[in-house]
Amino acid sequence: MVDAALFSAFAGIYFWLPKLTGRMYNETLGKWHFWLSIIFFNMIFFVQFFLGLAGMPRRIADYNPEFTTWNQISTIGAFGFALSQLLFLYALVSAIRSGAKAPDKPWEGADSLEWTHLPTPAPYHSF
To answer: 63: helix, coil or strand?
Structure first.
């Protein structure tokens, strides 16, 4: 459930960023952020399935040494996921500061009211 909420929030930010700021983000950085986040997120949580199948109990601070390798992989995934969020922040800040000017309708599927009836960036008090 965490991944659905988290990646939906990222998608929403990437989708509405041009409308809110009037600037486009670097799509290459966005793709790097997505793929690094997916890979490291799966390194964190997919590994936990293997640990559970091997018999490791949940929510304990001290575990058997036989689980060390999988827990280290999960820890590396957590640090990598955190670093990929720094890439996300960099993409956002660079888009706001120096991104290309966004057109009024940058996306093919952007046909809802905010995209069709408001200029980009949206004026204050319009949402």
So the answer is: coil
